[in-house]
Structures are given as structure tokens and as C-alpha cells.
């Protein structure tokens, strides 16, 4: 029965050992990116102590009360990613591009004419893209250590081969496609994600039965590469999507020294990951010529958070800023598909299955210091701290299905910070800007660092302002092909160039 299936398209997420809800997800939705108005990005995002900018509002809600006038603004961003993947000494580079409306906002400034202590109120709405997920990379090389069979062998341990077969009575009862779906779902209920992967590997010619060990556990052997030859891998990954935030802000100025504010935030996340592994070069003793394993993950999420912030001016020239970002509480839906192809035979297609769960991201604390050189310019420093270990998954009914995954996040990830430095020099209506930012790794076990430089300029026409920024960023990180079995890592070097244009109109 095994011989006449090679394509399997399936979906199910039962356990925390599945393709989704991993540490990569925790980092993806938490890791800050430099996104915002052209002025904000040109100055490295160091605005917690400054305010007076739409993207500063997303960091510190007290920023809305710093505005001198009511304004409306919009920003567009062009992004170019160049990612080099190194896999066992072989380098391969892929380019990708994206273009989007980065930001849109409006702020209303209400001045108090009664000479009270609260001299100004700022009301604001701001739409902001927090993260762009668009990127592509391609890891190509010869693996002498492990292959796709090791992935399936890992998941198949202890699962009796008889449970991985399709019986004639099941085909008679459900039809051919229905029988595969029936067995796949049954294995998910009995063994979780591992049972489904074992089924996929068995039916796709990757593994075969090999009896039982001394403890009575079913064991398997490689069917695709019995001689354990080095195999050639071509691993292509595509990410698309974005994480955006709608902020509704209330802020106020107290006398001449203190600004306070609060944000209520609505979050929207859209993410797609498609990874495609081609494996061949099995050697003369192999039972198949090549294999193709594809995973597709589509995630939609909606969330809520709030922020509290303050800016204090101890002197005319010095500003201190402090803000608190609450956890973001997401409701997520995943659609997960898998496709297995070995040596060009007919197969079956099964509809995907959707999985709902909750994601809670950690809180963030930001502090900043700025010095104002009168009307000539300024310099600003900011530090953001996030304890990513506090990220957690759950399915919302008190079930502890994610307990092991949450423990792995806590033990493997670590708190990290982002340093931002920016400056501005004004020459009448023209402003020249520059910035620097550096982000430390969230992962204790893998290298993941990001840093960048920025520059830009702005021109004040009186009733409006036009600003531009150019941001060059480099991120280095390591990833594994899969979480289990085939865990060989490849290094990624991402060189990103962003060009942002913002237009602000005074009301």
C-alpha cells in the first residue's frame, strides 16, 4: 500500500512540538524594528525623551502633548532586503523588495486658556507598521551529517508501523483521499504532531519499519538513504506580511515641565512562511531519486495593549523620558499545510486545518535622555528593554498543551535591549539628521545581532514639512532547517536598505 503514494498535503497543529508556536514565533512578534516617520528613522528612533513626532507617540504617549500645533502626517517606505545564507560553507544571496504606507496619523492640540496647571491636551490617532516580515533566503549545500529521513525518523520513534499504513477497508469506507485524511487525523489524536509526521515520512518513501528495540518501542530505518550518503539540500524560505498598530492617545502637559500620556493600541498581525526543501544525491543504494518537503504557515492575529509614558524637563535644555509598554494579548489563527513529494508518483490533496490559540508578548520598558541646543539642534539617547522569556502561548481554556514550549522559551531565550542614538542640526528651515541603533540577541544559543545607521533631512515650508530618511541595517542570525531531527544550522546575513518619505501638514 505504501508504494502508490508520494504527494501528501495535510494540516494539523495538536502539540507544541509542531511547526508553529516556536521560539522563532516568539522572537518574530517581539523583536523591535526601526519603523516610522522619516524624522524618527533618520534619528535612529531615539524619541522617548523628545516627543513631538507621530512615531514617537507609538513609543511614548506623552509625545502627543509636545506637539505645538495640530498636524496630520503620512509616511511611505521602500525596503530592499539582501540576504546571504551560508550552509556548510556554501553562500547564496537572494534579494527582495517591499513598498508600503508606513505611517498615518493626526494629532489635535488643545491649549488651556484658563491659566490652570494643565496647560495643554493632546489627542492623537496613529497607524504604524511595527514590523515588516517580507524576506527571502535560500540555503544550498551538501550535508554530511543528516538528511530529511532523520527528521521523520525522530518523529516516528515508538510508533508502530501498522498505524502508519492505509488499510483497504479504510479506502473502501472513505475513498482514497478520505482514507489518508482519516488516518492522518487519527494519528494526530493519538500521537500528536509526531504521529502525523511519521505518517508523512512513511507514505512518502522516507522511512520504513525496522522492528522493535529492547524496551518494545517501534523503531524505523531510512528508506530514502540507507547508505547514509551525504545529501544535497536546497532550502528556500519566503516570509511575507506585517505587524501593524493603531494607537489612540490622550496626553497632557502639566505646567512647563511635565508631559504625561496613555495609549490604547489595537494590533493586527499577518504572517506567511513557506519553506521548500529539495533533497537529492542519495547514491546508488537509495530507493528514491529525490524528495521535496514543503511547509506552509499562514497566521492572522488581532491583539490589544496599552502604554503609559511621561516626559520631564528638569531644565530648559534637558528632557527625560520614560514609557511602559504592556504585554500584547493576541488571538491567533494558524493555517498549516505540508506537502511531501518523492520520485514523481500520483498523490492526494487534503484540505488544511485551522488552529486557534493565544499569544502573550512581554512588556517593554523604555528610557531616554535628550539635550536641546536651543534652536540649533539636539541629541537624544534611548534604551529599550524586553524580557522575551515572558512570551507565552496557550489555547485559552486552561489547557496546558503549550507548557513544554513555554518552558523552552524561558530556558533558551533571554532579556535583551536596543540602544538608539540620534541627533538633529537645524539651519533655518533645513534640518540635517543622523542616527545609530544596536539590538542584542534574544537567543542564548544562537547569534542574532542587529545594528544600523541612518541619515536624513527635512525642510519646513511653514505650514508643512517634507522629510526623507535613508536607513542601512545589518542583521546576523542563525536558523535551523527544522526543530527536530534535521537541525543543522545555516547563518544568515541580512543587509537592509530603507528609504522613507514623510509629509506633515499643520492644521
Mean pLDDT: 88
Q: How much helix is in the residues? A: 10-25%
* Large-scale geometry: elongated
CATH class: Mainly Beta
Query: Which strand-content bin applies to the residues?
Result: over 45%
Strand order of the largest sheet: 2-3-4-8-9-10-11-15-16-18-19-20-21-22
Q: Ranges with pLDDT <50 over ≥5 residues?
A: 1-17
| Biggest sheet character | 14 strands, antiparallel, barrel
Count of spatially separate domains: 1
Rg result: 27 Å
Q: What's the end-to-end separation, in Å?
A: 73 Å
Q: Looking at CATH, which topology would you report?
A: Porin
Distinct helical segment count: 7
What's the SSE pattern? Answer: EHHHEEEEHHHEEEEEEEEEEEEHEEEEE
What would you call the structural class?
mainly beta
**CATH H-level homologous superfamily name:** Outer membrane protein transport protein (OMPP1/FadL/TodX)
How many β-strands, per DSSP?
22
Question: What is the CATH-assigned architecture?
Answer: Beta Barrel
Amino acid at each position: 500500500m505504501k508504494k502508490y503514494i508520494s504527494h501528501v498535503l495535510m494540516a494539523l497543529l495538536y502539540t507544541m512540538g509542531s511547526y508553529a508556536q516556536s521560539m522563532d514565533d516568539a522572537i518574530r512578534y517581539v523583536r523591535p524594528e526601526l519603523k516610522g516617520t522619516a524624522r524618527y528613522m533618520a534619528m535612529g528612533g531615539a524619541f522617548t525623551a523628545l516627543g513631538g513626532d507621530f512615531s514617537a507617540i507609538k513609543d511614548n504617549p506623552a509625545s502627543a502633548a509636545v506637539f505645538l500645533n495640530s498636524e496630520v502626517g503620512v509616511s511611505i517606505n521602500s525596503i530592499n532586503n539582501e540576504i546571504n545564507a551560508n550552509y556548510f560553507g556554501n553562500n547564496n544571496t537572494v534579494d527582495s523588495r517591499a513598498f508600503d504606507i508606513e505611517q498615518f496619523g493626526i494629532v489635535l492640540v488643545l491649549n488651556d486658556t484658563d491659566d490652570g496647571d494643565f496647560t495643554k491636551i493632546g489627542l492623537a490617532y496613529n497607524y504604524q507598521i511595527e514590523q515588516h516580515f517580507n524576506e527571502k533566503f535560500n540555503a544550498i549545500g551538501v550535508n554530511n551529517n543528516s538528511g530529511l529521513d532523520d527528521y521523520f525518523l525522530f518523529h516516528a520513534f515508538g510508533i508502530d508501523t501498522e498505524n502508519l499504513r492505509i488499510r483497504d477497508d479504510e479506502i473502501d469506507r472513505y475513498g482514497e483521499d478520505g482514507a489518508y485524511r482519516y488516518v492522518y487525523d487519527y494519528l494526530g489524536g493519538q500521537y500528536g504532531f509526531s504521529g502525523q509526521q511519521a505518517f508523512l515520512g512513511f507514505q512518502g518513501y522516507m522511512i520504513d519499519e525496522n522492528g522493535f528495540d529492547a524496551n518494545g518501542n517501534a523503531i524505523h530505518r531510512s528508506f530514502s538513504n540507507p547508505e547514509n550518503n551525504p545529501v544535497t539540500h536546497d532550502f528556500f524560505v519566503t516570509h511575507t506580511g506585517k505587524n501593524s498598530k493603531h494607537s489612540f492617545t490622550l496626553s497632557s502637559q502639566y505646567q512647563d515641565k511635565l508631559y504625561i500620556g496613555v495609549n490604547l493600541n489595537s494590533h493586527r498581525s499577518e504572517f506567511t512562511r513557506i519553506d521548500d526543501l529539495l533533497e537529492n544525491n542519495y547514491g546508488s543504494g537509495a530507493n528514491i531519486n529525490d524528495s521535496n518537503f514543503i511547509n506552509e504557515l499562514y497566521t492572522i492575529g488581532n491583539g490589544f495593549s496599552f502604554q503609559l509614558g511621561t516626559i520631564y524637563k528638569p531644565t530648559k535644555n534637558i528632557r527625560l523620558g520614560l514609557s511602559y509598554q504592556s504585554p500584547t494579548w493576541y488571538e491567533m489563527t494558524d493555517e498549516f499545510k505540508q506537502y511531501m513529494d518523492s520520485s514523481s508518483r500520483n498523490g492526494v490533496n487534503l484540505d488544511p486545518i485551522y488552529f486557534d490559540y493565544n499569544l502573550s508578548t512581554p512588556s517593554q520598558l523604555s528610557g531616554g535622555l535628550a539635550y536641546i541646543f536651543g534652536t540649533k539642534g539636539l541629541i537624544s539617547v534611548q534604551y529599550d528593554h524586553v524580557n522575551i522569556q515572558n512570551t507565552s502561548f496557550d489555547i485559552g481554556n486552561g489547557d496546558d498543551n503549550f507548557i513544554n514550549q513555554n518552558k523552552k522559551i524561558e530556558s533558551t531565550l533571554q532579556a535583551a535591549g536596543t540602544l538608539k542614538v540620534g541627533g538633529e542640526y537645524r539651519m533655518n528651515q533645513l534640518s540635517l539628521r543622523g542616527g545609530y541603533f544596536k539590538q542584542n540577541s534574544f537567543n542564548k544559543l544562537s547569534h542574532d545581532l542587529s545594528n544600523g545607521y541612518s541619515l536624513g533631512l527635512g525642510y519646513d515650508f511653514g505650514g508643512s514639512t517634507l522629510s526623507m530618511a535613508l536607513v542601512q541595517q545589518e542583521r546576523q542570525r542563525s536558523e535551523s532547517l527544522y526543530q527536530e531531527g534535521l537541525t543543522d544550522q545555516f547563518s544568515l546575513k541580512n543587509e537592509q536598505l530603507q528609504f522613507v518619505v514623510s509629509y506633515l501638514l499643520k492644521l
